[in-house]
């Protein structure tokens, strides 16, 4: 074999505009388990040690004065960041930052990247509060919103390395562009649209054509949607349709979740979700669920006033010594209802709208009514009180007869997370001998936890997704008490390149027996950890980076970058190499190289059919 010495470089020339492009098969980006929601993929990524970036993107158009006069979007946004901080604060590896941006005729970042932790929540909430007055924008330019998010997160990914990115995108209406009365107004509102540079927006027809051009650039193959998805950016869209036809949000739904209308070529794994809200309570719930991993929601009947507690109107959950706190959001279907906490001893504690806290046996209870129907609460254990252990309940009471159901999202926080303990001690190499993976359990402080302290019903799964997109199940539904036993991984014919190790911990609290009855334990939301890894090629092959940045240019000249090789061997450009995202007008761009086969593998050169345009 023709060998290249260690750290020789490959030359690539790229015409214009790609910020990041893969040089090898794109690494698989998610567990294909249908239960793994896009939000869960983000959280799993941060638990695995990736730098988390969450961009909250708010519509600031003038219509909000009518559709959201009480600024529920601000209340909901603050709930989102608080819940996300609570959830990811349990992870010793998690490192998440939040930024805020608004959009109308332009994109404007109002809060730079800020750590999502207790120390910085006030700063984040202060900027969120300011969005109560940011509702005077002249239009709702979707393209500006999502392209601004793309640029912001592309810069982050170049700077931060292993990255986990998510956009939470809110709007109260569809893509809307206004005509410009004259040239002065055109300049005041930012000049021509980048996606329609020759359109002077002088008439309604011009504005309609600009919107069509913007939507086309968002959704074309390689367009803005594909560019975000190729960077593994998860998009959670939330539409407030107070007085709008739901079809108004078809573009937002297609862009966020690849649903309703075709938008982008990259649709797996599912790129995001879209939630439609029709009133304030729906909106608050949508933001709350954006910070959830999606398995703790239940619907419950309601007790008649004066007949509480009742079986049909009570959601029971069982706490044990592994749980330190409980967080919930509840929503009543009618005005005038009540929510009560049933303690382990059966006593009922009301949570009135004019209160916010109470002492209960074994715990402290805090709550807040966000609207007439929506309540959030936090229950925290006091020390090691035995009064904590056992069945508790949320009791829903209606002041009038109704067949409608209450709903609640319940999260039980146990200070435990699975971890790959010998990650830094082994090399996984294709076609090599099997290796043993060693797992364990740790607390939020990184302290080792004995698996025997969890219930016998608690289970765990382990899988490995390779660069070919194939998921290999290593462990399925084994008792968590066996998690420290070595897990054999045979690389076999696994392709070299980026891969992901997925560990899922399914904790069930201990069942409780007392007072002549037994209550089964409560199953917690799965705790998933995704750890990126590299499957190395055989020892006599070189390795290359998973990604390389071509930077940015506005010149129609090739851009040359160097790509380092480590080890010895021969590298050339494969026939299947392709771009997953590129600026408009570069769809004829192609990657080619004199190093096209084993006999010519000394360098790579990028050219484009557009070079003479």
What does this structure look like?
α3 (72-88) packs parallel to α10 and α5 packs parallel to α7 (204-219). The chain is an alpha+beta fold and 613 residues long. Strands 5-4-3-6-7-8 form a 6-stranded mixed sheet, sandwiched between helices. It has a 6-stranded antiparallel sheet with strand order 9-19-12-17-16-15, covered by helices on one side. Strands 10, 11, 13, 14 and 18 form a 5-stranded mixed sheet that branches. The protein is built from 10 helices and 33 strands. It is 18% helix and 32% strand. The protein is flat.
How would you summarize what this structure contains?
The protein has 613 residues and is α+β, with helices and mostly antiparallel strands. 18% of the residues lie in helices and 32% in strands.
From the alpha-carbon coordinates, what is the Rg to the nearest angstrom?
Answer: 27 Å
Main sheet record: 6 strands, mixed
Question: Would you tell me the structural class of the helices and strands?
Answer: alpha+beta
Total helices: the number is 10
Beta strands, count:
33
Rounded average pLDDT: 86
Task: Sum up the overall morphology in one term.
Answer: flat
- The multimeric state of the shown protein is single chain
Distance between the termini: 40 Å
Percent of residues in beta strands:
25-35%
Write the layout of secondary structure elements.
Layout: E1 9-15, E2 20-22, H1 38-47, E3 51-59, H2 64-67, H3 72-88, E4 95-103, E5 107-115, H4 121-130, H5 142-160, E6 163-171, H6 183-188, H7 204-219, H8 224-230, E7 233-240, H9 250-257, E8 272-277, H10 280-290, E9 297-300, E10 303-304, E11 314-319, E12 323-331, E13 338-342, E14 348-350, E15 357-360, E16 363-369, E17 374-381, E18 390-398, E19 406-414, E20 417-420, E21 435-437, E22 439-442, E23 459-465, E24 471-479, E25 487-489, E26 497-506, E27 512-514, E28 517-519, E29 527-535, E30 547-549, E31 558-564, E32 589-590, E33 607-608
Parallel strand pairs: 3-4, 3-6, 6-7, 7-8, 10-18
Antiparallel strand pairs: 1-31, 2-30, 4-5, 9-19, 11-18, 12-17, 12-19, 13-14, 13-18, 15-16, 16-17, 20-22, 21-25, 23-24, 23-26, 26-29, 27-28, 32-33
Helix pairs in contact: 3-4, 3-10, 5-7, 5-8
